[in-house]
Amino acid sequence: MTVSDVRAGNGRYDRDPEVARRDAEACELRAQGLTYQQIADELGLSSKGQAYEAVQRALRDIVQEPADEVRQLELLRLDELARRARTVMLAKHLVVDKGTVVIWEGAPLIDDAPVLQVIDRLLKIQERRARLLGLDAPQRVSVDAQQIGEDIMTLIAALAGGDDEDDDHELVDEDQGDDGDPDA
User: Fold this and answer.
1) What is the SS3 assignment for 94?
2) Where are the domains of the chain?
3) How far does CA 59 lie from the centroid of its chain?
């Protein structure tokens, strides 16, 4: 059995702690060089397939925990970058020309460029956060397999033939007259 009879509160079943311990032990035995059948025999599992599954679950757990921690750390860093960017965005920026603040109609001229740059930076931070959390929908790519297959066959034929097969596919510019002079 790989799950307990108790739900985790999110609608999913939690792994039984005993199963998790056995999976870790199976992984340790595999690291010591035992076969899956030997692991099954040692742990009282009914088949080498169950031993394999136990090792795979343990390996997923080993990889998942550090990945979750790194993801959390990256999210904290992104939060800090966004906080600092917002501080820059809220600051007052004045236009300066040759070391002097530009005055317009009796008041210092406000420079919007830094604010717009911060907005661009915040968008990049949000994009990175979305990628990190997997929030973006997967990109769909359309491939015309038949056309690609025809192109490959044409290239193979051209390479295999080695002769002047291009003579059959001469390109003619419609703007040119019969003598090839575009001005005619």
Assistant:
1) strand
2) 17-133
3) 22
Measured in residues, the chain has a length of 184
Mind listing the pLDDT tens digit for each residue in 24-45? 899 889 988 889 999 999 999 9
Coil, strand or helix: which one is 80?
A: helix
Segment 13-23, tens digit of pLDDT: 566 788 888 99
Report pTM: 0.46
CA distance 5 to 16: 8
Question: Using CB atoms within 10 A of its CB, is residue 179 exposed (0-12), middle (13-18) or buried (19+)?
Answer: exposed
d(CA 40, CA 98): 79
Closest CA to 50 of 7, 19, 16: 19
- The long-range contacts involving 59-65, CB below 8 angstroms and separated by at least 24 positions, are 59/27, 61/20, 61/23, 61/24, 62/27
* CB burial string 6-37: b at 16+ within 10 A, e below: eeeeeeeeebeeebbebbbbbbebbeeebebe
